[in-house]
Amino acid sequence: MHARQPRREWLEADGLGGFASGTADLVRTRRYHALLCAATTPPTGRMVLVAGQDVDVRVGDDRQPLGVQAYGAGVLHPRGDTHVVAFEHEPWPRWEFAFANGMRIAHELFVPHGSAAVVQRWEMLSPPASGEPVELRVRPFLAGRDYHTLRRETDGFRVVDEPHESGVRWQLSHGSPDILTHGNGTYTTEPLWYRGFLYEDERERGYDAHEDLLAPGTFVFDLRRGPADLVFAAGSLPTDLRDVDFCRARERARRAAFASPLHRAADAYVVARDGGRSLIAGYPWFTDWGRDTFLSIRGLCLATGRLDVARDVLCEWARHVSGGMLPNRFPDQGDVAEYHTADAALWFVVAADELLRRTDPSARDRAILENAIRSIVDGYAAGTRHGIAMDRADGLLRAGERGLQITWMDAVVDGKVVTPRIGKPVELQALWFNALTIAGRLEARWREVAQRVRRSFEERFWDHEHRWLCDVVDAEHVPGAIDSRLRCNQILAIGGLPHALFDGPRAIEVVAAVERELLTPFGLRTLAHRETGYAPVCSGDVRQRDLAYHNGTVWPWLIGPFVEAWLRVHGDTAANRATARARFVRPLFRHLDAAGLGHVSEIFDGDAPHTPRGCPFQAWSLGELLRIEAVLSAPTHASTKEDLSHAIA
Question: Can you give the pTM of this predicted structure?
Answer without folding.
Answer: 0.95
